[in-house]
Amino acid sequence: MRAAVLVATFFFAPEGTKAFTPTAPTSCTRTHYHQSCRVLASTQLWSTVDEKMTSFTSPSLGVSSQIVDDFIQNYKSAMKEGHEWSKEFGFASDDNEEVAEGAFYALFRAIRELDSGTFGLSGTPFYVPSEILAKAESRDKGALTGYFHFTPELSTALEEDFLDAQVGSTDNRKGWTVNAVSMPSGSSFEEARMSLEQVKSALEVGTVIFNNIGAHIPKLAGPTLACTDAMNLPGAVNMYCTARGMRTSAPPHTDRQDVVVVQTEGAKRWRVFTPPTDGNVKPSADPFARGKGEDSLPLHTLLEGKGSRLGSELLMDVVTREGDVLYIPAGFPHTTDTVEETDADYETSLHLTFNIDTHVWNLDNLNVRNIALKRAGYKDLLQSPRGEANLYKGKVNQLP
């Protein structure tokens, strides 16, 4: 059944090189979107969640909150389905037990049910504070708040299991690169495994990244499964740990996946930009891997706005805190820091990034197009240069 769903998704994805992208413009007025997120993120300006939502939809900001309203309605509707799913897989023991895994399922189902204009290069990022999620759940505290912490969950896993991690670079003028946190010093388990002390040392240098961590820590297997089942698409989860006071925790970059961020400990500032429009200047760049490796998306150039060579515009400037949810479509540059949190009462910012892996598994219309041309016996004039394995580079980006 799940394979059939994947095949259906593969053949009915929208046009171009992007997954789930519309031809109509989004309802959000992008030039003011980042202003609303700044307002929404400031918890000192409102005493109730209702007032937050009223301010978010204020006409003076020129912003439509339709995507957030739709998400909340979908989330409420999906809670019962999430609870049934959590019972089926043994996370909840009876009808009265509400567990976080069911809320994760409802979160991803709510995103799945959004308009197709939410996804891909024509998509719309959005942010939902934990207070609004809690209200939708009829709780005082959101189910996702504080789900996973550095201590004890990650610390225990590092001491008991064999985990792998990388530490990221912090120069916001250059492409993001990563290096291993540790290397085996011997052949025994103790000599080969990464230690808690090594991770703590790496945190002094940059963000520590645990890729596909849901396959290694049992507590994170549930949310990862929830993502895959609720989205009916391949999913994975990465975990990012950053010390407070880090000026750049991730330099500006784009991702191949639509991502759902859940902040589980501490806080992190996010700045999200529109996709670069410098394709004619840099046609060899992969739009889903900008700012990585040899490619660079300097922060100061992004902040120059549409008039810069990149042609990007700031959409969001928001601080995520425990239980908050942030959605960023594939191909949208973003950068993070914890510099505004130097006086905070936490040591480590920790968030989970759930990857909706459409492009990774070739579930997009670019691949449908390529297959159709091959079956019809046509020569593809936009085919990547010989020897180039990346389908998303070069003339292919001239497609609508």
Q: What do you see in this structure?
A:
The chain is an alpha+beta fold. The protein has 12 helices and 12 strands. Strands 1-10-7-12-5-4-2-3 form an 8-stranded antiparallel β-sheet. Helix 2 packs antiparallel against helix 3 (49-56), helix 4 crosses helix 5 (100-112) and helix 4 packs across helix 6 (130-137). The model is unreliable at 1-64 (pLDDT under 50).
Name the beta content range. Answer: 15-25%
Distance between the termini: 32 Å
Give the number of helices.
12
Main sheet properties: 8 strands, antiparallel
Rg is: 21 Å
Tell me the helix content.
25-40%
Instruction: Give, in spatial order, the strands making up the sheet with the most strands.
Output: 1-10-7-12-5-4-2-3
Order of H and E elements: HHHHHEHHEEHHEHEEEEHEEEEH
Mean of residue pLDDT values: 82
Number of strands: 12
Form type = globular
> Uncertain runs with pLDDT below 50, 5 residues or more?
1-64
Class from secondary-structure proportions: alpha+beta
